[in-house]
Structure to design on (117 residues):
């Protein structure tokens, strides 16, 4: 899988909650399900994802790769960094003390800890 496909999948993963809600209102939930299926197989959800986001008025949502905790990737912070266990999506999540480890929105599996340097 190429980094660009992982970034595309991260784009879907990071928006899945709001995307599902908005798509359900427009009776386009099946389109979201199809994009999720593709992403689970490791295929890019683009360009249909961008079209759907635009149709639903969600293009204002920024880059989700580092959500919900922006991190510039520089230096050694000693922070616990988590990522998708399947390596499918490019999202990184920095755990704050006392916060539960989130699940990947695509697979509903817990993120796993990764070493970044
Ligand atoms: Zn993900």
């Amino acid at each position: 899988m190429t980094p660009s496909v992982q970034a595309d999948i991260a784009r879907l993963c990071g928006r899945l909650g709001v995307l599902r809600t908005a798509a359900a209102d427009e009776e386009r939930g099946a389109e979201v399900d199809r994009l999720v299926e593709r992403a689970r197989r490791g295929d890019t959800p683009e360009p249909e994802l961008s079209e759907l986001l635009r149709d639903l008025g969600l293009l204002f949502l920024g880059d989700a790769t580092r959500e919900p905790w922006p991190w510039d990737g520089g230096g050694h912070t000693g922070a616990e960094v988590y990522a998708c266990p399947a390596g499918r999506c490019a999202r990184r999540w920095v755990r704050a003390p006392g916060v539960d480890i989130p699940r990947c929105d695509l697979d509903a599996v817990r993120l796993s800890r990764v070493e970044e340097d």
Notes: Helices lie at 3-13, 16-25, 29-40, 48-55.
